[in-house]
Design goal:
Strand order of the largest sheet: 13-11-12-22-26-23-30-29
Largest sheet: 8 strands, mixed
CATH architecture of the largest domain: Alpha-Beta Complex
Helix content: 25-40%
CATH topology of the largest domain: Phosphoenolpyruvate Carboxykinase, domain 3
Number of helices: 14
Structural class: alpha+beta
Length: about 550
């Protein structure tokens, strides 16, 4: 087996289990807990009063042991329909007094959970025999729909998945434990509470109904385990294309709404995943972590390879119930969809030939190539973007530019660890680009030209096909931009709309660029990258040469 249970992993030092894991694991053995299969959990979800059965059949439910023709189910979570980052607490970053307090809160939460009928289920994190982790879930039976979605988003031990797991390579990791009680409430935590002990592979998600909390909370632990195995944790999409008989692999990193899925899932080529994977640099391979897609429904009903819906409306057509999509009811409506809808898919591929940081920073043109490995890491560590409807944040926060290192708000390891891993990736020969998918200034910092989605899509095709000739960008040492005229066959009016050299003569725009890069430097210094030499190198790479302005 890939991972070990607590006794197997900690048998040489049972104190190593730690109080947090021990507290959570004991809950799994209560008389109130029943271990159920995916099919049993689905049937339980169908009987929940607040669930809507749609007249849309599940896509290939037999793979889960669920009868053919079974309907897609719809759950609606109430007011909060996005992730609540402010609810998260990392145990190893807390003081001793704080740890004691949260352990007390957890013990009380589990005591209350003991009065509810609960279910336990098992899933697998990772799709390939080289990296698979056993994951155990405990949740009230009244939340069976979330449990069914968790098993679908990852993969339950049904049929072929279970057989692959038995053949998988053992790794020195304890099983992942996920405890969830969306019905929990506490006057001191109106936004809910997520307690993570990533050193022990356990998480408690309390008072939060949105399924994305379960999905990303589980991925947090999978990524952390990957880091301990010297793999690069990636919140991004990865695909491979063939050009002149040569395979090229591209990885796109960006938050929800940045264009990550659109770039990764474009037609043609082979798609590995658009949200979560790891890179095993020692063995030159990238591996997907989930078999399906957690997709937004803001683009309407375009495919029917769907398993489940969340936070969308319902309309009746000829006495049949269908989902009302396009974010009519609320922002960030979601569904779980099969990767089969994308065309040709694979569970693994090689390491990326190119990495693309997707940003919304008006000081950057639509494409910049980063030729210096340290600069490539620095720009990834200060990936600039805007909050989206996928996150539960106040309206005023949605308008602000923020830094999200490597587009991974679920990182629980130190930033320097990511920096070191990505530096190793770039030193191995991977090329790095920045795509600005927002707007780029034309005559001032308020006169912006939107970067069309079609342009970003075309740019990715162009870097795969090596169609663009670059030249050094005087504004940023170690970076290159397309030569004048080099984009004529890619986007005919590119030079007219997005000429990056023009900004050298625009004082106001240059001031804005100095400010942005100053923010990047301050952010890295404030984040306290533990490797001081690396931090200084990252900061130095971001210093703009005044003499070139």
């Amino acid at each position: 087996m890939s991972t070990k249970n607590s006794y197997e992993f900690f048998k040489d030092d049972l104190y190593g289990i730690g109080p947090f894991r021990a507290t959570i694991e004991a809950a799994f053995f209560g008389n109130n807990v029943e271990a159920l299969t995916h099919a049993q959990i689905y049937e339980l979800a169908r009987r929940q009063p607040a669930i809507r059965e749609l007249d849309v059949p599940m896509y290939r439910p037999e793979q889960f042991g669920i009868p053919a023709g079974s309907p897609c189910l719809l759950s609606i979570d109430g007011d909060v329909v996005g992730r609540t980052a402010r609810a998260r607490r990392l145990m190893r970053r807390l003081s001793e007094d704080e740890r004691k307090r949260y352990l007390g809160i957890l013990r009380e939460a589990i005591f209350d959970l003991g009065s509810k009928e609960c279910l336990a289920a098992e899933a697998i994190g990772g799709l390939t025999e080289e990296f698979m982790l056993r994951m155990r879930l405990l949740i009230p039976k009244s939340q069976a729909k979330n449990a069914s979605d968790w098993l679908t988003n990852f993969q339950s031990f049904e049929r072929k998945a279970g057989e692959r797991y038995k053949r998988s390579i053992p790794i020195e990791e304890p099983d992942i434990l996920v405890l969830v009680d969306p019905e929990w409430c506490h006057p001191d935590y109106p936004d809910g509470l997520v307690i993570v002990d990533d050193d022990k592979n356990v998480i408690a998600i309390l008072g939060l109904r949105y399924f994305g909390e379960m999905k990303k909370g589980t991925l947090t632990l999978i990524w952390r385990a990957a880091v301990r195995q010297s793999m690069v944790p990636c919140h991004g999409g990865i695909r491979e294309d063939t050009y002149n008989g040569k395979r090229r692999i591209t990885a796109n990193f960006g938050l929800s709404g940045s264009g990550k899925s659109a770039l990764t899932n474009r037609k043609g080529g082979v798609i590995v995943h658009d949200d979560a994977f790891v890179i095993d640099l020692d063995n030159n391979r990238s591996m997907a972590l989930e078999p399906n897609l957690f997709d937004k429904t803001d683009r309407g009903w375009t495919e029917e390879m769907t398993f489940s819906f969340m936070n969308v409306g319902v309309v009746e057509i000829n006495d049949k119930k269908f989902p009302l999509l396009n974010d009519v009811r609320n922002a960030n409506g979601r569904c779980i969809k099969s990767r089969d809808v994308l065309g040709t898919v694979a569970d693994k591929t090689g390491k990326p030939d190119a990495v693309v940081w997707l940003m919304k920073d008006s000081t950057l043109p639509p494409i910049v190539r980063l030729d210096n490995e340290v600069l490539a890491v620095a720009m990834g560590a200060t990936l600039m973007t805007k909050r989206t409807a996928a996150e539960n944040v106040p309206a005023e926060e949605m308008k602000k530019l923020v830094f999200e290192p490597f587009a991974n708000p679920f990182r629980c390891h130190y930033l320097s660890t990511d920096c070191e891993l990505f530096l190793k990736l770039f030193k191995s020969g991977t090329t790095c680009y920045v795509f600005n998918t927002g707007g780029y200034w034309k005559n001032s910092d308020t006169d912006l030209v939107d970067v069309p989605k079609d342009l970003s899509l075309r740019l990715q095709q162009a870097i795969v096909a090596d169609e663009i000739e670059f030249e050094p960008w005087k504004i940023l040492t170690g970076a290159s931009v397309p030569k004048p005229g080099a984009m004529d066959n890619v986007w005919s009016d590119y030079d007219n709309l997005f000429d990056p050299h023009r900004t050298i003569e625009q004082d106001k725009c240059c001031d804005e660029m100095f400010d942005r890069f100053g923010q990047r430097i301050s952010f890295l210094e404030g984040e306290m990258v533990k490797n001081l030499e690396l931090r200084q190198n990252l900061v130095t790479s971001l210093m703009l040469p005044y003499e070139n302005f």
